[in-house]
Each structure stands twice: as structure tokens, then as C-alpha cells.
Amino acid sequence: MAESKEIHNLNAKWDAFLDLGVRRFVYSSATGALAGLILFRSPASRWASIAFGAGIGIGSAYTECSQKFDGAETLVAKEE
């Protein structure tokens, strides 16, 4: 029974990871595209800003999900 619960919990974590990863990838790519349209004139620079935004989105999703998988707590100063 415990094994079934662990598998269900792992599936929930992977679902959350995919949801967060796709959402951040899309939002950061769209932000990069908008910034590229406003700031740059050449197509290569615009594509580079889209790729940069996508990389930031995937990296931030990976970092957050890695902490969730490991069960690590975020570093927050606690008031005593």
C-alpha cells in the first residue's frame, strides 16, 4: 500500500513539474518575443531574445521542481 502512495505522489510531482515547465517556457518565450520586437531590429537578435527567455523559463522551472523533488526547503529567514 505504501508503494502505491509513493507512486501516486511521484506522479503528482511529475505532473506539477510538466505544468510548471510548460507554463514558464511559454510565458518567458512570449516575454522574450515582445522584448525582441521592441528592442531589436535584426531577426537573429529577436530569435536570440526568444531563446534567452525560454532558457530562463526552463531554468527557473527546473530549479523550483528540483527543490520539490528533493524535499529541500527554501532559504527564508525566520523571525524568532
TrEMBL record:
It comes from the Eukaryota. Pfam families: DUF543. Keywords: Membrane, Mitochondrion, Mitochondrion inner membrane, Transmembrane, Transmembrane helix. The keyword Ion transport does not apply. PANTHER family: MICOS COMPLEX SUBUNIT MIC10, MICOS COMPLEX SUBUNIT MIC10 PROTEIN. Belongs to the MICOS complex subunit Mic10 family. This is MICOS complex subunit Mic10. It comes from Artemisia annua. The lineage of its organism: Eukaryota, Viridiplantae, Streptophyta, Embryophyta, Tracheophyta.
